[in-house]
Amino acid sequence: MGAYILRRLLLIIPTLFGIMVINFALTQFVPGGPIEQIIAQMQGEGDVFEAISGGGQEAADSSGGGDEKYLGARGLPQDFLDELEIEMGFARVVCGPDHVGEPDIRAPDCVKEEIPALERFVNMMWRYLQFDFGESYFRSIGVFELIAEKLPVSVTLGLWSTVIAYIVSIPLGIKKAVRDGSRFDTATSAIIIVAYAIPGFLFAILLLVLFAGGSYWQIFPLRGLTSDNWDELSMVGKVLDYFWHITLPVLASTIASFATLTLLTKNSFLDEIKKQYVITARAKGLSERRVLYGHVFRNAMLIVISGFPALFIGVFFGGSLIIETIFSLDGLGRLGFEAAVARDYPIIFGTLFVFGLVGLIVGILSDLMYVFVDPRIDFERREA
């Protein structure tokens, strides 16, 4: 097992490298960039796509200033645009052999030189291997610190949504398998399918209207993870306040998870219940509970465990932009969306690297859970 884990760990390197290469290459073809976004904000456009439109070119031509590459410059000083490129890592200052002191774009013997995309990618990956993710272009804060700041919201939504989904869906799926075809099975199937069909954002709005003072009851708070007087509360009060705030967001983000996991558990148990070893165990006089949880459970849970990494990464790290927006939560979902709109490349690539690495490690942990549930599985022997 040790050799298998070592091989999987070594495979993380080319896999993560491939993820970064593909996404870095895609950004080279996306219109606009962080500099265009800054120009748009300075000119009051509010939208990078307007700033690089033909109208911006006409204004730049009429003013006689700006860089042709940035169609929305509208007369901004060329020195300012050059400094932006250098500060964001798209260019560097190259000075003559007789230059004294630090390189300065304003010096007569120094010029700006564009950094090729390949070189920028290599430099970025070298920093990332040292876990140096740089600073946000627009927030003046390190990417790692920014992720840590937003992480509590995603931890709350992802962790509790996953735990609740498994706690409810697995016992429910087992009971549906045991009572297959009964009224209970039919009724619960109808309920979870309806729940699956309801969009998460619509259910979130419904919860707000019903229980957060929208039109009916003011039972739960409308926004945030904690109350304003959080620091003044006792330890028990802080715990209760935390759960009071997360109830509605967690319910809204969990509702769609029940159907897939419940039906997956049910079908997996049905397949195992029909096998010969179950018939033999029952013939030996074993109780139904021991047959289900002593024999069937271990085999049936393998397919459920196999879906854990995708569920964990999707809910925990993906974040839910709509849920976070509706409940006024500042998490990774909103962070990723704002970074993509603003073309904040350090945040985009830094979070991609971190989450990609964690996702690959979780995949290895999933294999270890296979072995924990069923020790008969030997990945080294299967690969041989």
TrEMBL record:
Q: Which UniProt keywords apply?
A: Cell inner membrane, Cell membrane, Membrane, Transmembrane, Transmembrane helix, Transport
Q: How does it sit in the membrane?
A: Multi-pass membrane protein
Q: Name one Pfam family in it.
A: BPD_transp_1
Q: List this protein's GO terms for biological process.
A: microcin transport; transmembrane transport
Looking at the UniProt entry, the stretches that span the membrane are 9-26, 153-174, 186-212, 242-265, 300-327, 347-373
Instruction: Report the GO terms under cellular component.
Output: plasma membrane
Domain ABC transmembrane type-1 residue range list: 151-370
Q: Where in the cell is it found?
A: Cell inner membrane; Cell membrane
Q: Which InterPro entries match?
A: MetI-like, MetI-like_sf
| UniProt entry tagged with the keyword Transferase | no
Question: Which SUPFAM superfamilies does the record cross-reference, listed alphabetically?
Answer: MetI-like
Instruction: Look up the domain of life of the source.
Output: Bacteria
Q: What family, per the record? A: Belongs to the binding-protein-dependent transport system permease family.
Protein name (Swiss-Prot/TrEMBL) = ABC transporter permease subunit
Task: Write down the species.
Answer: Maritimibacter fusiformis
